[in-house]
């Protein structure tokens, strides 16, 4: 259980980083911290773009198990956005850290994160 928490923290911190070179479908992504109210007020297109940006950041930091370029991760970003929505459905207006942690949990649940032993190698 401790390893899962460690990976969650690494993923959440990576999601908070910045990245350039976005594919066209990611251009409308929210760049700064996204709290729950802002996430929920965003359109599906913005949520998917933002989730894609987070996946790209995780990939840049070598935390992602997906073996494809960020430009082709739109389906995974859509699944991630849907998972985040479901995770936040029962939560009440959390700060941006809550949204990032929900995203990190979803990345893990969806199987997009590298396993702990792959991160330590």
What is the H/E order?
HHHHHH
Give the beta-strand count: 0
Low-pLDDT segments: none
Largest sheet: none
Mean pLDDT across every amino acid position: 81
Strand content: under 5%
The number of helical runs is 6
Terminus-to-terminus distance: 19 Å
What would the principal axes of the Cα set say about the shape? globular
- Could you tell me the radius of gyration in angstroms? 13 Å
Q: Given the helix and strand composition, which structural class is it? A: mainly alpha
Helix amount: 55-70%
Describe this entry's structure for a reader:
The structure is a single chain. This protein is an all-alpha fold and 121 residues long. The protein is built from 6 helices and no strands. The chain is globular. The mean pLDDT is 81.
Secondary-structure blueprint:
Layout: H1 2-15, H2 36-41, H3 44-60, H4 74-88, H5 96-109, H6 116-120
Helix pairs in contact: 1-5, 3-4, 4-5
Descriptors:
121 residues, mainly alpha, 59% helix, Lipoprotein
Can you give me a brief rundown of this structure?
By secondary structure, this protein is mainly α. Helices cover 59% and strands 0% of the residues.
